[in-house]
Amino acid sequence: MSDKSQPATCPAHAPSDHPKIKPAKVGILLTNLGTPDSTDYWPMRRYLSEFLSDKRVVDYPSWKWQPILQGIILSIRPFKSGAAYKSIWNNEANESPLLTITKQQTAAIKTKMEERYGDKVMVDFCMRYGNPSTKSKVREMVEAGCTRILFFPLYPHYAGATSATANDQFFRALMEEKWQPTARIVEPYFEEPSYIEALAQSIETAYAAAEKKPEKLICSYHGVPERYLHEGDPYHCQCQKTTRLLKERLGWDDTQIVTTFQSKFGPEEWLKPYTVEEVARLAKEEGVKNIAVCAPAFSADCIETLEEINEEIKESFEHAGGQDFTYVPCLNDSPAHIDALSGVIEKNLLGWLE
User: Which of 13, 217, 311, 335 is the least crowded, having the fewest Cβ atoms under 10 Å away?
Assistant: First the structure.
């Protein structure tokens, strides 16, 4: 994002040969998961290797996991993942939808922050995996005069494999700075009233536009191994609370809304019920013909929503006898979502900027 930096000057009362320093400002650095640079084999392989080598994502011992990853998995999976990305790729901009939407979110938040704080802030985004990297954006902010950085993982819920690894990468970037800025991390916002309101509005809009009113709403969250829950990760509980708060805001009862988990990977048991199996069960065993699916854990539409939910999970429901499948888009850069994210940022800037 462009930066309207003021020129660097010598500090007051400093000798004339003192290095020039830019006026201090606050950096607001948004971050999301990441994206491959293209759908071709080698960019996909690099991206998947970085992602699946992260100990926060796959915590098996390296001696056991890396030979499997670098051998069998990364010889085959880039072709499959590349094909999936091609089905949703933003060909006009030659980038993934996640990157397109994150740019749009950042631009909208930048406008709001500059309207409120003027040139005291610098707003930008980075990705945990791929480009633009966290390290490069921290470097840009420090060079622009940011002596304080608010780091905002765009995950409503905390999980070791999402929020924590994003924070890890941010801290690694700070370790390389000679003059290290003061830093704050935005905590998960899964129960923020404005976030729940934005979710509820998106559901109401989708239901109003549907030809047939869905009988059930499936809240499909990205899954993690069940073991993580027992090891202290709060993700499962936070997802359940989001569903409950959304249900209460919509004025529904328990029969109208279901919590599920998607994207299982590997041999372990993951959080259940699995979305792909649950939608089929609803159609087969309960005779449900019309459903809607939303993805509250994703701040922007991506491969897991546009391809997995709107293609694979939809297909599972229809093959089991379901008829009408409504996908409720992520909140993306909707005005209600931008207002919610901006409100969270403003709360976290208290004491730095008023």
Answer: 13
At 86-123, the pLDDT tens digits run: 999 999 999 999 999 999 999 999 999 999 999 999 99
Per-residue DSSP letters for 226-250? HHHHHTT--HHHHHHHHHHHHHHHH
| Cα(247)–Cα(31) distance, integer angstroms | 28
Total H helices, total E strands in the chain:
12, 8
Strand partners, 225: 270
Q: Any idea what DSSP says for residue 86?
A: H
Strand, coil or helix: 293: strand
DSSP state of 303: I
Q: Which class for 259: exposed (0-12), middle (13-18), buried (19 or more C-beta within 10 A)?
A: buried
Residue type, 326: T
Q: Which domains does the chain have, with CATH numbers?
A: 37-86 (no CATH), 193-327 (3.40.50.1400)
Query: How far apart (Å, rounded) are the C-alpha atoms in residues 263 and 112?
Result: 34
Tell me the C-alpha to C-alpha distance, in Å, between residue 212 and each of 263, 285, 292, 326.
28, 21, 10, 9
Which amino acid is present at 345? I
> 284-316: per-residue pLDDT in tens?
999 999 999 999 999 999 999 999 999 999 999
